[in-house]
Design a protein that fits this description.
Blueprint (H helix, E strand, L loop, with lengths): L2 H16 L16 E5 L1 H7 L1 H4 L3 H12 L2 E4 L3 E5 L5 E5 L1 E5 L3 E7 L5 E10 L2 E6 L6 E5 L1
Antiparallel strand pairs: 1-2, 1-9, 2-3, 3-4, 5-6, 6-7, 7-8, 8-9
Length: 142
């Protein structure tokens, strides 16, 4: 397994953990966030040239796995469906928001609260970025 593939699997797994939450829901507007989101594979490939260097078989395997990952937000809850179809749900707390970004505070079940930045590129494209992390998971609205 290549390093980029392992990194993607680790990033996805860690992102899923952050959504096992017990935080208070926000009363603020999260209209851009609300909806169902999937991985933006095209943007992911553009930002990670290492993926292009993989065999077409390995690229196809990665794309199929990522295509099954979904994030569904409403005003108070998020549900994540992983590549195996397993779902994790929880509430979230909006720390701050503006037209381009929402910062969520996510409380892990057995750990300290962490923050997740969601940057909106437009109404149908966003990036999930963990605080103190350089990597992003690119999502597209379904």
């Amino acid at each position: 397994m290549t390093a980029i593939y392992k990194g993607l699997r680790t990033a996805l797994g860690m992102t899923l953990l952050f959504f096992v939450v017990a935080a208070v829901a926000s009363a603020g507007s999260t209209s851009k966030l609300v909806g169902s989101w999937g991985v933006d594979i095209k943007k992911l490939k553009q930002s990670n040239p290492e993926i292009k260097s993989l065999s077409s078989e390995k690229q196809s395997e990665i794309e199929k796995e990522l295509a099954r990952l979904a994030f569904t937000f409403d005003e108070k809850m998020v549900t994540i469906t992983d590549h195996d179809g397993d779902e994790t749900s929880g509430s979230y707390h909006v720390v701050s928001e503006n037209d381009k970004q929402v910062v969520l505070e996510i409380a892990q079940e057995n750990g300290p609260a962490e923050r997740l930045k969601i940057r909106f590129n437009d109404d149908k494209h966003m990036e999930l970025v963990r605080e103190n992390d350089d990597g992003a998971l690119f999502l597209v609205k379904k």
